[in-house]
From TrEMBL:
CDD domains: PLPDE_III_YBL036c_like (cd00635). SUPFAM superfamilies: PLP-binding barrel. Pyridoxal 5'-phosphate (PLP)-binding protein, which is involved in PLP homeostasis. Gene3D superfamilies: Alanine racemase. It comes from Amycolatopsis oliviviridis. Coiled coil: none annotated. This is Pyridoxal phosphate homeostasis protein. Residues 29-238 form the Alanine racemase N-terminal domain. It comes from the Bacteria. Belongs to the pyridoxal phosphate-binding protein YggS/PROSC family. The keyword Lyase does not apply. The modification N6-(pyridoxal phosphate)lysine is found at K41. InterPro entries: Ala_racemase_N, PLP-binding_barrel, PyrdxlP_homeostasis. PROSITE patterns: UPF0001 (PS01211).
Amino acid sequence: MSDARKGELAASLAEVEKRIMAACEAAGRARDEVKLLAVTKTFPALDAALLADLGALDLAENRDQEAGAKAEEVAVLRPDARIRWHMVGSLQRNKAKSVVRWADEVQSVDSERLADALAKATRSALDSGQRDHPLDVLIQVSLDDDPKRGGTRVSEIGRLAERIAHVGDIRLRGLMAVAPLGIDPAEAFEKLARASERLRDDHPNAREISAGMSNDLEQAIAHGSTCVRVGTALLGGRGLASP
């Protein structure tokens, strides 16, 4: 079964790579400017391990409870794989201590209180030896100011960035956003690109733009995305979560 699944994933990965390469070529960008983040949420640890075998070492989850157990299982399945785990879902402050145990990067920081909680949890994990490096973070941006979708308003990015820069133990790497429903993705990603330019004026190391998913990665790459988050196009429809 795993051989057949590996073949499916290999074919899907090749197709996604074709799309990314074509989009980069159309935008006049080098392929290595765009990272592929494989979103393994709801899929079993074996799928994540097989993706690692195929060279997809940046894996993303959106629920801490599922992700923590999955990361541990994958570490047993592939102890030598240099996997980098990313949290891309909404995160409550009370989950900060748990998420820093497995995540290398949190892409969904949308408040100063969450930034503070992550910094505190990271410092504790560093002191106790649970981590050996700071936590990378991205500010999640709301491109339509809908509080239900998560994300900070564009006008609040600067203030949150300053808090992250000064709180310690977490490192600001850039911005993340989802194109809102009912809005042209190209328009949304252009707005995000402008916000990123302004952010880099004061935080030059915050270069990452995480934007674009299975249905709109081409538009995101055309507007400067450095990280596309792909789930369905790689893994298929909703899978079964790891135990």
